[in-house]
Predict the structure.
Amino acid sequence: MTRSGIQTILRELQVTQTGVVASAGETTFYGLLPAFQDLETGETHLSLDADGGLATTHLPHGLPASWVTQRDEQGQIVAVKASIIAGYLRGGRFFSHEEWVARGCDA
């Protein structure tokens, strides 16, 4: 997945069921933690900020090296395996963005 592909996924994840952009606070309000999952293995990792803390939005920092397929000159992740998807963790369960939207907001 290319840098533009990562940016597109991250933008799409911010769109809610009504098409309104969701803020990081809204996903946190519903108990959702931004995360990534490898569809090949089922392995899931929370989204981390540059300092290693939990991120309030989907960031590629801290993804396992085995998921990364390309970095830029500064070492920033610009591509990951095609099997990596972004979604959310809630109550120990991973939800893709589509799964969460389909179930509706149930705070």
